[in-house]
Amino acid sequence: MKKNMGIIDRVIRVLIAFLIATLYFTGVISGTVAIILLVFAVVFIITSFLSFCPLYLPFGLSTILKKK
């Protein structure tokens, strides 16, 4: 599993996950929408810690900045 996520991508995903969790625990979102967003939040956290996004793989995408 080759890393394909840069630090900015990872930070944005973690921030979005924390935002979703905050909205859920404060009661702003609830029901089916909340469950779906929480699943996305968990996926964002997992992919951020692994530095690997499986959706980038088929398209050959990488957000890692290349040094010259």
Identify the notable features of this structure and list them briefly.
68 residues; mainly alpha
What does this 3D model show about the protein?
By secondary structure, this protein is mainly α. 57% of the residues lie in helices and 0% in strands. Helix 1 runs antiparallel to helix 2. The protein is elongated, with a radius of gyration of 14 Å. The protein starts with 6 loop residues before the first helix and ends in an 18-residue tail after the last helix.
Shape: elongated
| Helix vs. strand class | mainly alpha
Q: Count every beta strand, where a strand is a DSSP E run of 2 or more residues.
A: 0
Compute the CA-based radius of gyration: 14 Å
- Assembly annotation: single chain
Helical fraction equals 55-70%
Query: Could you tell me the mean pLDDT?
Result: 93
Largest sheet: none
Strand content: under 5%
Q: Poorly predicted ranges (pLDDT <50, ≥5 residues)? A: none
* SSE pattern, N- to C-terminal: HH
Describe the secondary-structure layout:
Layout lengths: L6 H19 L5 H20 L18
Gist of the model:
Helices cover 57% and strands 0% of the residues. It has two helices and no strands.
